[in-house]
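Here is an idea for our session: we take a single protein and study its fold together. To get us started, please write out a protein record for me. Start from the sequence, derive the backbone structure tokens from it, and show both lines together. Go ahead whenever you are ready, and we will take it from there:
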Amino acid sequence: MTSTKERPSGHKKPLVYSCSGCSNIAQLANDVAVKMDRAGLAEMSCIAGVGGNVKPLVKLAQSGRRIIAIDGCVLKCAKSCLNNVGVEPDVHYVLTDYGMKKEYHKDYNDEIVDEFYEIISGKNKDAD
């Protein structure tokens, strides 16, 4: 986890962006972000839209709200998409830093989603 800079907090939930690639850990990153969104801890936004330079989604990313980025591996695709539009996430997680192994054509179990949800949401509950 890397905290990068402070932003004005305000009353809005933080934005969460995740990798959504084809590996097991990319999908894990996405599932953790979805779970944070559904639990009301963050508002998930579309990293593909940011990467594709879709104006309303880029504007939201650049709005100054606190940003949590969750990447599966060292390629850091979610963080790179944000950086390409001049945005640095406030907090960035890379799941391989937590001992996860990147594999293709494999799934993970729901307990792993819950484990990473607890790690990431627990560190970000009072930060908005």
Notes: The chain is about 40% helix and 15% strand.
